[in-house]
Amino acid sequence: MPINIPKELPARQVLEKENIFVMDDERAHTQDIRPLNIVILNLMPDKEKTEGHLLRLLGNTPLQLNITFLKTVTYQPKNVNPSHMEDFYKTFAEIEERKFDGMIITGAPIEHLQFEDVQYWDELTEIMDWAEEHVTSIMHICWGAQAALYHHYGIDKFPLEEKCSGIFSHRIFNGEHNIELLRGFDDAFIAPHSRFTNISQAEVDAHPDIQMLAVSPEAGPFLMMSKDGKHIMATGHLEYDTVTLKEEYERDLNKGLSVRIPAHYFPNNDPDEQPLNYWRSHAHLLFSNWLNYYVYQATPYEWQ
């Protein structure tokens, strides 16, 4: 997939080294096809790493994408250069008149807060409500998935006794292989999780508008989808690269948090050993299936 991003975005150099097909505005304007417009609300603290995680996966299908990064105005991130946000991110006011084919709302390390206590909650709910009419399909990740379940469906999160961190095995729920989002998935697959809260599988199963797609015996519900395909909710992080859980574990320790070693992650459960990536292929499948079946084939050629 040729992915159209700003020419000076730092993630571009990383992606090009990995042979991910990126395209700048000059070349994109010579393409005589209709690109898909994707907006990413990046709530993660390390903006540049998250940009790389997501763009790596979005850049792996034969579609051309125009990427817009969205920031909040009610909260200013502390872990990124303000000039980066100024150069590469838009505010909601700058894009609210536009229509987008797809949207990604990332996670955020704020699970300890009630949703209404999050500084940018009112702004986020305004954006989520706007997306109902202005976006064809939205993918919500980790805390973003929990926020969507709460705001759209009234399903709240609950705290865990200890952090759910590691790579966990999942099974397709009730053999739902006919669901296009899961096309090509193995019966069992691995995905990373990193959070202090969870959601009730019973509440999701009981909701008439949500379909459970994949569950982990250890980590709980993972993939869910609204029955109209509008909302994809993933409580884990298939987009993470190999060392992300290691970096988060070290970050938590440096903060003085009492956290266990990420489960099933380090070889021999030894943090000094280099972890291996067992989830990369399913990460690419999830994003390419979403883009193909729920964005490209569902979005109108011309938004009215």
UniProtKB/TrEMBL annotation:
Positions of the record's site feature: Important for substrate specificity: S194
Signal sequence segment: none
UniProt-recorded Gene Ontology molecular function terms: homoserine O-acetyltransferase activity; homoserine O-succinyltransferase activity
Pfam families according to UniProt: HTS
Entry keyword Kinase: no
Sequence similarity: Belongs to the MetA family.
Name of the molecule in the record: Homoserine O-acetyltransferase
Native source organism of the sequence: Salisediminibacterium halotolerans
